[in-house]
């Protein structure tokens, strides 16, 4: 994907603030601190378009990034962060749920999980939900630089099994730090942009990127 332009259009909390132009949207969801905002920056080759933080809970709104004036990447607040107050957590949960359930132009919901850890109960719930609505063809495993190459396959297997991913669902390992795996994400999003959304159907036969094969 050639990035000609990338700009933030709005940080929204309610549906009336969402962009009105009906362009396709790709949303990134996952636990707080998993690396959603970092992934957006790395995909776009921008240092700090999306705000990143050492401490979880950085993204608190739904941020719409318009790419090439053609489609949106959507950065959502993370879930599962214990230090956020109960009220705040409920409010963010509502913001995320409202967006995910009320957006006709939402083309794909991409789940991000940390490659180091077994997906949590929240991740499993989220992925089940994503599948239920006919999304979920792409899962990203973040922070690949944090594990040894010899551990890759074991961790990919752990994630696939815990999330009960179908063989045709794509697990794309990446490192935002090392800028690895971005092309595979763009390729997959390109595929999805061309396809109709049909539960369980995935025309792509692309393997889990070259990283997988230790190249
Ligand atoms: P919330 O906004 O709280 O939901 O978090 P987020 O999912 O947007 O995570 P964010 O991108 O803010 O990253 C959280 C932390 O992980 C930051 O300290 C990042 O620098 C770090 N991080 C993100 N991606 C990578 C990666 O590929 N490798 C390493 N080593 N660290 C990463
Ligand atoms: Mg964030």
Explain what the structure shows:
The chain has a single domain (6-205), classed as Rossmann fold, CATH 3.40.50.300. The protein starts with 5 loop residues before the first strand and ends with a helix. It has a seven-stranded mixed sheet, with helices on both faces. It contains six helices and seven strands. The chain is an alpha/beta fold. The longest helix is centred in the middle third of the chain and has 16 residues, at 86-101. Strand 3 (62-67) and strand 4 form a beta hairpin. The model is unreliable at 197-210 (pLDDT under 50). The structure holds guanosine-5'-triphosphate and magnesium ion. Residues 36-37, 58-59, 75 line the site of magnesium ion.
Write a brief caption for the model.
The chain has 215 residues and is an alpha/beta fold. Helix content is 31%, strand content 20%. The protein binds guanosine-5'-triphosphate and magnesium ion (MG).
